[in-house]
């Protein structure tokens, strides 16, 4: 389970970097305005948390929502550690909270998408344990 969470966090960061790279290209070509950076970061974190959470939750046998949340939290914490290591100032400012919340929302969405809803068996098919 720990391997799934670590793999989900790394995949989430990779997806976030690709989305942010595409967003930077869109900003430099004039398709997006420069003041849309916070929305772009939030979208990248949600997509990264979603993909990383799906990778993690599909590896867990049960409690898939918890697996998705764990992958999203791992991604958010890794981004906070990277920001603190490079001297990014306070990590509890608005952008840091947006990143953590977006990663958690993407992970929760992945956990909900990976749930398997089984149909209940009719009472005539169920066996009683005696």
CA radius of gyration: 18 Å
The average pLDDT value, as a whole number, equals 82
User: What is the approximate shape?
Assistant: globular
Strand content: under 5%
- Structural class, from secondary structure content? mainly alpha
Tell me the series of helices and strands, N- to C-terminal. HHHH
**Number of structural domains:** 1
Beta strands, count: 0
* Poorly predicted ranges: none
Largest β-sheet summary: none
Helix content: over 70%
Give the helix tally.
4
Say what oligomer this is.
single chain
Q: Give the terminus-to-terminus CA distance.
A: 34 Å
Structure description:
With 130 residues, the protein is mostly helical. The chain has one domain. The chain has helices at residues 2-29, 37-57, 64-85, 94-113. The two termini are 34 Å apart. The mean pLDDT is 82.
At a glance:
The chain has 130 residues and is mostly helical. It contains four helices and no strands.
Notable traits:
0% strand, 130 residues, 4 helices
SSE map:
Blueprint: H1 2-29, H2 37-57, H3 64-85, H4 94-113
